[in-house]
Design goal:
Aminopeptidase; single chain; about 190 residues; 7 helices
Length: about 190
């Protein structure tokens, strides 16, 4: 097992991890899988330098942390991807957590970066998630990014505790999710 930066050979594996780790409700609704995949493709195609993977013994990616380092750039680039999907077929709306992440502009001055993490179930609870988050944040620090945030489900207490153990602090709790953040450098 190794933690390393994303490489183009990881593309299909990252997609598999993304779709396999959808929550059970999302797995039953193809349109939500599509939305999650759209977000996944944005990060690995537009910001691959901000993607860290954990690999198995055959160097196949089995988990990832990816994200954007600058909210304004992310918002500008992602706008193209999100046009026309606020309301999808049969009146199904974009999940609240995605809207919340996309609109995290209220935190952008202190925490311009954000991240997502997914890992195949059999590789969880072994420390790889923490190692990937550390590598991802170290990468942001080298770029002078002052802080990173994320949104986690309001009922996902296990994930909330994971982020807290990894240095994230709760910023806000709403019905659509809990916003967590970590400072990466001192404010100027």
């Amino acid at each position: 097992m190794a933690i390393r930066r994303y490489e183009s050979k990881d593309y299909e594996n990252i997609i598999n991890v993304c779709l396999d780790t959808c929550d059970p409700v999302t797995q039953q609704i193809p349109v939500y899988q599509y939305v999650k995949l759209m977000f996944c493709l944005y990060y690995i195609e537009k910001e691959p330098e901000n993607c860290v993977v954990v690999t198995d013994e055959n160097d196949n990616a089995v988990g990832y942390v990816y994200g954007a380092e600058d909210y304004d750039e992310y918002h500008k680039n992602m706008s193209e991807h999100l046009q026309g999907i606020a309301e999808l077929e049969n009146g199904i709306f974009l999940p609240d957590a995605y809207v919340e992440m996309y609109n995290h502009h209220i935190y952008k001055d202190k925490y311009p970066a954000h991240l997502h993490i997914d890992i195949f179930g059999e590789y969880r609870s072994k420390g790889y998630g923490s190692e990937m988050i550390k590598a991802f944040c170290d990468n942001l620090r080298t770029k002078g990014v002052p802080g990173v945030m994320l949104i986690v489900g309001v009922d996902n207490e296990r994930a909330q505790k994971f982020y807290e153990r990894n240095g994230f602090q709760l910023l806000a709790k709403k019905k659509s999710g809990c916003a967590y953040a970590m400072k990466l450098s001192e404010e100027k």
